[in-house]
Amino acid sequence: MAFPHSRRKTILALLLLAVVIAVTVSMGRWQLRRADERRAVAAAIEAGRQQAPLRLSAGQGAAAYMPWRAAEARGAWRPELSVWLENRNHQGRPGYWLATPLVFDDGRNAVLVLRGWVARQPGSQQAPAVPAEAGPVTVQGELAERVPRLFELWSFGGAGAARLPARLGDGPAPVLQNLDLKAYAQSTGLALLPTVLMQTAASTSPADGLVRDWPGPSVDYSQNQGYALQWFSFAAIAALAWLVVAGRAWKRARQRANAQP
Q: Which parts of the chain span the membrane according to its record (predicted)?
């Protein structure tokens, strides 16, 4: 009676070890893919920053708006069309990003500018007043494909998220978690460039109290490679254990076969 019981335990151990091998190999391959993605992001950042600075205007080809490319725009702020983006932290402090369109001289075409970060006042749930600046300004920064997004738990249920009003400009600036460029263009009626300017400097405007220290994506692909090595090491250990268990089972089966008359 001991033989079937021992055989069942051996089969169960081999199955469990096979599952461990499959899972750890899969995790190692996933870490290698993440390393490739981060390496591609690092290459895109370097390629963008090697481009000559771009003077933004209407009618430029989409290829000119390479992410991370230095760019400059001249126009007038439309502070009444501003949006505050909440839950944006800086050095561990909660706060807001301010997004305001900069309208070109033609009065219709514009670029959405992420102007900077401001801290949230302790105990207050209200965003600060939007800085007002009159006259044309020249804004310098780097281009981004879109406004960086935050994960929204309520996005799966379709409820709970603050939305843009049908028409911006009436009342205080709305406070949102994320901002879609197309939806913002519809709400403002502006012809927006298909890019976002993350402001780093304004050559003709006074100090507005905004911090322009933008977070960048993680590009440490060597960390993922290290994790992949760990997962493959676990897989190798599990494979070795599988061979040991299988070898011992085969040896016991031979001994039982030889012991039979």
A: 227-246
The whole-angstrom distance between residue 190's C-alpha and the CA centroid of its chain comes to 27
Closest CA to 179 of 188, 12, 140: 188
Domain extents in the chain: 45-199, 223-260
pLDDT digits over 66-118, tens only? 999 999 999 999 999 999 999 999 998 999 999 999 999 887 899 999 999 99
User: By the 8 A CB rule, do 143 and 197 touch?
Assistant: yes
Write b or e for each residue in 53-68: b if 16 or more Cβ atoms lie within 10 A of its Cβ, otherwise e: ebebbeeeeeebbbbb
Record the pTM: 0.78
Half-sphere exposure (Cβ direction) of 50: Cα atoms closer than 13 Å:
6
Q: What pLDDT shows up at residue 155?
A: 46
Paired residues of 202 in beta bridges = 139
Which of 67-81, 108-122, 196-210, 214-228 has the lowest average pLDDT?
196-210
The answer to whether 4 and 232 have CB atoms below 8 angstroms apart is: no
Residues 6+ apart with CB under 8 A from 243: none
Instruction: Please state the length of the chain.
Output: 261
Rounded to whole angstroms, the Cα distance separating 221 from 37 reads: 8
Q: By the 8 A CB rule, do 151 and 141 touch? A: no
Helices (H), 96-203: 181-188
Asked if residue 113 lies in contact with residue 139, where contact means CB atoms within 8 angstroms, the answer is yes
